[in-house]
Amino acid sequence: MELTVNWYLALSAILFSIGVMGVLFRSNAIVILLSVELMLNAVNVSIIALAQMMADSTGHILVFFVLAVAAAEAAIGLSLVIALFRTKPTVDVNEFNLLKH
Amino acid sequence: MIQQVLFLFLAVVAIGSALGAVLARSPINSALWMVVNLIAVAGLYITLNALFIGVLQVLVYAGAIMVPILFVIMLLNLGSMPAPSEIQWKHVVAFILGVALLTQLAFVLAIGLDALPEMSVSEEAVAASSAREIGKMLFTRYVLPFEIIAILLLAATIGAVMFAKRKFA
């Protein structure tokens, strides 16, 4: 069995689907944030695999930017979780309906 | 041969730890499983000869992103979520949607299975993924996006401080 780029793409698809299921299944805001990170990470795997296949460093630059955006997203997400926790002492997203009223 | 074994091992660790992160009851267990997953993915980058990105993954993800997440979990003193008593309707829908997405991705992969060439990391790929080459690209061709990322990070930092200070209604 030869190791092909498809193996990496398949792994990436599986990790992405696990991340999507995490966002849909869980109601804990922090676990949802972690699942979003999981999805970003899965996409990075496929970008790197394709970049190495094509011997092109543009893919690496793209992954570099994705990492920076993930860091920014984590910071904003966590500060939102803290702000929500101050409003109501829970991180269950089903408890929050501030925009409904 | 060693490459396949290494890939399979890292892939199994990555998938198992991803499942652990999604299914763990307590958020702290979730975060620790996530760290295992990120390190396994960093190992996968190294099997692809992308050393720079692999190191960056450990530094930025496992270091700079997971530490604040663990800090926030600690700060908020979050316990485990109670075990769900019965299977809710939304969980069934979520499962079906997730499986449907995986099926679509697998279908697209299966169609393109023959279109992609065999994986062999060539000498030029190794050269193109070196820190020297990436740095050169980053400061010549992609210097404007690089500066925009810097501004984005500054905005995110200021935004995070403002959000964390404010109390919503």
Cα radius of gyration of chain A in angstroms: 17 Å
Uncertain stretches of chain A:
none
The main β sheet of chain A shows up as:
none
Do you know the CATH topology of the largest domain in chain B?
A: Four Helix Bundle (Hemerythrin (Met), subunit A)
State the separation between the terminal residues of chain A, measured CA to CA.
Answer: 59 Å
What is the distance, rounded to the nearest whole angstrom, between the alpha carbons of the first and last residues of chain B? 60 Å
Number of domains of chain B: 3
The tally of strands of chain A reads 0
Could you name the ranges of chain B where pLDDT drops below 50 across 5 or more consecutive residues?
A: none
CATH class of the largest domain in chain B: Mainly Alpha
Q: Could you tell me the strand content of chain A as a percent range?
A: under 5%
> Shape of chain B from CA axes?
globular
Let me know the CATH homologous superfamily of the largest domain in chain B. Answer: NADH-ubiquinone/plastoquinone oxidoreductase chain 6, subunit NuoJ
Helical content of chain A, roughly?
Answer: over 70%
Tell me the total number of β-strands of chain B: 0
What is the count of helical runs of chain B? 7
Please count the helical segments of chain A.
3
Structural class of chain A: mainly alpha
Give me the secondary-structure category of chain B. mainly alpha
What's the SSE blueprint?
The complex is a heterodimer of chains A (101) and B (169).
Chain A: H1 5-25, H2 29-54, H3 58-87
Chain B: H1 2-23, H2 27-47, H3 51-76, H4 89-111, H5 123-128, H6 131-139, H7 143-165
